[in-house]
# Entry
Amino acid sequence: MTEKIVFRDSAPLQGTGVCGAIALHANLTSARLVAHALRKGEGHLSADGALIVRTGVHTGRSVTDKFIADEPETTDEIWWGKVNQKLPQEKFTTLKTRIQAYMQGCELFTQDLYAGADPTNRIRVRLVTTGAWHALFSRNMFIRPVETELPGFKPDYFVLHAPDFEADPEIDGVHSTTAIALSFAEKVVLIAGTEYAGEIKKAIFTVMNWLLPARGVLPMHCSANIGPNGDSALFFGLSGTGKTTLSSDPTRRLIGDDEHGWAKDGVFNFEGGCYAKVINLSQKNEPEIWAASHRFGTVLENVVADPCGRLDLTDSTFTENTRACYPVEFIPNVELSGRGSIPKNVFMLTADAFGVLPPISRLTAAQAMYHFLSGYTARVAGTEKGLGSEPQATFSTCFGAPFLPRHPQVYGKLLQKLISQHGAHCWLVNTGWTGGAYGVGKRMSIKHTRALLRATLTGELDNAEYHTDPFFGLAIPAHVDGVPDEVLDPHRAWADKAAYDKAAADLVTRFVVNFESFAEHVDEDVKAAAIKSAV
# Structure
């Protein structure tokens, strides 16, 4: 392929500050982007035609390298700290100017895309990148305008993506050669020094988390699906809790697997694709995701294949965080509009590696806000590098702290208002361990978890008999068809009852300590619903 046309001041670069490029490819189709990625040596094809790429040193988000420009228009409303680090306005300008200059000597790919399936709450995004596969990732991940919408497309936000450009801490005011910097005043996102494509996706999610609360719309780090009767369900959860797997249900249409908004008339997907974790993906248990990962047009990050291109999804040589990115239409049972009704059920997923939380429990509205603000899960060795043999409790407020530019109580109060207003049923679901902690107990059966979800979605648990757990104050159903009664109550599932009591008390203490970080910002009913009140 010899598509080497020089463009100067061409329309796709207007507004970016990039004055030209040695070659420019605007809004190419997926097939052409795959061809360019292969030409440039960015990746290779699997036996089934998926594009396999490596992301180099960064196989996940670089959380310590994210910055927000400190600008007079926005500084008072931003949740400054470890998550949102201040970058002086002049340093943002310096970094932007250096990336713009760098791009003028590169071959560039642009994509015009939407974030938000709801036309009244969407933004127009123009990605400018040096990577063909990053353009394909973004084309898969976001909502693709129809061809007639491309002429005159006017971006609300620009993403300047230069994965091979190295930032300079002394010049740019950042910490390393990697930088992800956002300016809400200039409406520009800068990404440099990392090939991990998830930075593009999450930068725009951060933008949506900034814009929507001011409109009374709740942005959410959750998956969503819709039943045959039009009832929507939300699934909040951090990585590894089953958010993608559990929302991919053959009896319900998938709205989206990761990012949504809750507006006055229903929920809507921010994206037009899925970004599924595929380590140890099972064709038997997750057939839809497995099939989508084995076809042309999908991008596979850091997945291992043999010389013939046959995938080994159990191989974590490069990272545990192997990923597949594909358009939502690759899932057979999907809601292509990306929209659903007001949620009837809200699930908060946790993978409790301490094995002391029940597999399902009913939450009051105040408890739901408490657990939303807590955002608890536990990580274990084998899921992330650097973890020891003991489980590690993780609290990520609103199940998405790294992507929240505003104070957490802004999102918490919005959720509480929407739940109370619409009467949504809320549930805490443990997809982690039962019968003991990690290393002693066993992982919760996905068959049992699916049975519990079906019971809630069909209304079976609306009038069930419940008892209150003495440690966490959670309402546990006494019986659910298809799930052994001893599994429902974690205390009964442990052979060593004293060991359970000790582990449960320890986790309660962790919740109590975490609650101190936001207790002063919540109402009295949430304080009363906190776990410490039940101990």
